[in-house]
Amino acid sequence: MENLNEEKSRPAAAALQPPRRKTSGVMIFLIVVVSLVVIFGVFGLIVKSSLSEFNASLGGGGKDNLIVSTMTKGDPKEGKIALIPLTGVIRGSGSEIKGEGTLYDISRRLRAAAQNEDVKAVIFQVNSPGGGLTASDVIHHEVTQVQAAGKPVVVWVGDLAASGGLYVSASADWIVGSPTALVGSIGVIMHHMMIKEMMDKIGVKIEPIKSTSMKDIGSPFRDMTPEERQYFADLINDFHERFVSLVAEGRKLEVEKVRELASGKIYTAQQSLDYGLIDQIGYFDDAVAKAKELAGLKNPTMIQFKEPFDIEAMFKKMPFGSSAGGAEWMKNAAQAVMDIASTPAVDAIWIEQ
Prior knowledge:
Blueprint: H1 2-16, H2 25-57, E1 67-72, E2 80-87, E3 93-94, E4 99-100, H3 101-115, E5 119-128, E6 130-132, H4 133-148, E7 153-162, H5 164-167, E8 174-177, E9 182-184, E10 189-191, H6 196-201, H7 226-251, H8 255-261, E11 266-268, H9 269-275, E12 280-281, H10 284-295, E13 301-306, H11 311-316, H12 326-342, E14 345-349
Parallel strand pairs: 2-5, 2-13, 5-7, 7-8, 7-9, 8-12
Antiparallel strand pairs: 1-13, 3-4, 6-14, 9-11, 10-14
């Protein structure tokens, strides 16, 4: 009887026990994701710390330092000529101390050449359709600083020195253009993006609350008024006149003559020579010969200023090496696109239509 009573009481006791909860697939997924984030985060910190020490042992000083790289060896008793290449669209912000893009890369190399006592001349190798007006203006200023340090600057144009490309070259002591070079496109342009019609089609309307009538001048969400268009035209004309005056001063030409050339046209090497935009048609060797002549050198050493090997910077480009996550990067990228769309930019660039 006792055994029967025990067997009858077992199901009842089992029924009183709470059922086991099964871990959901979502919960398992979240646990795995969080674990991976923690593992990669810790791994990233360890590797980053190790790479910093390893990078320092290799002499990698980061992007804020440049190293001197010898291209051709000359007489060690003579001075050096620094080759500084500028290729592509001129963009960037900041200065030679802290910045980004072409502006930062080129201006700090020019500043390094100006401050290096061994450098006696600079060959500025330009191949650019131009770009940002401010970036071009800052680089132009750095070229004048090299000259102020008593070092001649010779520009060699292999393919193209248009708009901002000419802007940064204009003050050079001598400009050599290859027989197939294109030079010119003196002028500035403002890009104004309009997305009003697209917004109307999808039923989205932007209505700004502004303190003054021109606070949202250049907005891509509405049509520009005639007064606003004229205001922008006046701004562009002011920048254009600065461009003209810098070319006139640097090329030692009359302002009126440069103004006639400043129609936005580009010119062949022969036309550029005839108009005084360049001083010589030739090749890279001719630019080197001229730099030697101006600096009073016979057998100089040719150098470049290069980035040091920075393995830590390479690591930061990895997915787990960046301090910002993917979502934050996407947010910043989207904000950059909106900034470009909503803010007109003044450029000194040759646009192929």
